[in-house]
Design brief:
CATH architecture: 2-Layer Sandwich
CATH topology: Alpha-Beta Plaits
Strand order of the largest sheet: 4-1-3-2-5
Order of helices and strands: EHEEHEE
Number of helices: 2
Radius of gyration: 12 Å
Number of strands: 5
Oligomer: single chain
Largest sheet: 5 strands, mixed
CATH class: Alpha Beta
Length: about 90
Amino acid sequence: MADKTIHATIEGRVQGVYFRDYTRKEAQRLGLVGWVRNLRNSSVEAVFSGNSDQIEQMLAWLHQGSPMASVTRVIATELDQDQSFSDFSIRY
């Protein structure tokens, strides 16, 4: 069971720059579970579950993002309810 589950919205130039794929790869590297998807307003939304150290590393990575991304803001909130995920996926 995860220590923490975070909902994040990432703003800036984050669509069309492989942001979701890089996010999935980074989350998998860190051992996180959850999902990532594009939003209609050109931002990206993600939910991550894992231990506190993994979550902090992921949040730090989100501020940089993929090589061609230009992140202007990351809004992260901890979710109260326990989310149950088996892997980290890209949602469409």
